[in-house]
Fold each of these.
Amino acid sequence: MLEIFQIPVLNDNYIYLITDAKSGKTACVDPALHDPVIEKLEELDKKLDFILNTHHHNDHVGANLQLQKRYKCEIVGNEKDKARIPGISIFVNEGDTFKLGDSECRVIEVSGHTLGHICYYFSKESLIFCGDTLFSLGCGRLFEGTPDVMVESLLKIRSLPNNTKVYCAHEYTLNNANFALSLEPKNNKLKKKIEQIKTRRSKGLSTIPSTLGEEKILNPFLRFDNDAFIKSVGLKKKSNVENFKVIREMKDNF
Ligand code: ZN
Ligand code: FE
């Protein structure tokens, strides 16, 4: 069993601390800053065994070296990104498994936002840490990858079970939801979801995790092959990649 603690930092980043209940082994996913992580570890009376990085951007690896210096923790990242992830000491590749005590995750490579971006998927616990690839009702910008690579990556995530909890790295949900609604102003499920999001945000609460089942129904970036959706957005029925590309460009200009 995994215990998960969400630490909101900067404007809209989430750092996660995860603890394997049986062994007490603890990892930090994408530490942007060190102070809030240290504070939470002390509150929990834990030390840090691992850092799991999804990709090389500074708001995900910014505290790697300070935390490694303090806790002598190992740092896990994509072997392909070894030149860009500070302090990396455990190199993983697509399909590798990584054990945090008794809890095991699988590495899924999801290039697109960056080349070599990875997710950590805990199948038994039904949860995924997906960094900046899939957001609730959105997806990451394409900084290094092409639309075809990103579509392949999103399809990998979409193939996971509906009950998978989606732990992404940013609270972008309300803005994403407003974009989704601009594409489908009559979507009642979306309207209802937006009310829920607004209520939570007005109380200062997080909208993360979402579930993959809900994302499959409402996230525009997982619906590039849904005929009814494509039609209502006013797109001609083209390829998945072309549809995705247009939706992504619309969001970039939203
Ligand atoms: Zn990023
Ligand atoms: Fe980020």
Amino acid sequence: MTLSAVSKTIGRIHLRTEQLELYVKERERMLKEQLVGRGITDKRVLDAMLKVPRHNYVTEENLVRAYGDMALEIDCGQTISQPYMVAVMTELLELKETDRVLEIGTGSGYQAAVLSELAKEVYTIERIEQLAKGAMEKFELAGKTNIFVKVSDGTLGLPDCAPYDKIIITAAAPSVPPPLIDQLSSDGGILVAPVGSRHTHRIIKLRKVGDKIEETRHVQCVFVPLIGAFGLDR
Ligand code: SAM
């Protein structure tokens, strides 16, 4: 993130009261129309998404669309996911306050911020250093102390801190990277990810109990590709 981009984000912390009140109203509308209206029922997920200021995680140019029903471009050709997709994936994770969560694909930091409201610790990996640094700045400004960011190939996971109660991949994978399955708790650990070909994928959920993996399939979606040793080439 450039210095000017950081100062613009800091500037947003000092938004006028009327503007902040407007964003609260937009978040309430987002919840009602995009989330509850489409079947999201987990109150903890809804409360977290009502609380996290999504406008702090979008670019200056997209501020007016911060609460729109769409994914938005961020820096480095990447995206912040559509609010509905964040809600679906978060709900599928069945998060508990004691959970340690691994996220692959920090991007803007928004999904990690939502997870951090619902779990004990969030480890998030981003392959693009500029995005990871930008997200770290935002977490610091928001006073978040339970999110840990690492720059690396997330398809290899983060073995040093494994096992994880929950794992979420926020980029489209051709299949679930085996290291992530290994690093998922075998005591009912849940992994949620968009899986499929480069252009069409579906959210899948894996539940691991002992050495058994149960898979369920959910909504269709569009994500940027997961790039790495167990992802796509580029
Ligand atoms: N969770 C993000 C948010 O809330 O803004 C959205 C993530 S964006 C859809 C996907 C991200 O995954 C991109 O930032 C991309 O650079 C990252 N990514 C792709 N392959 C990766 C890999 N192997 N390891 C870590 N991050 C990866």
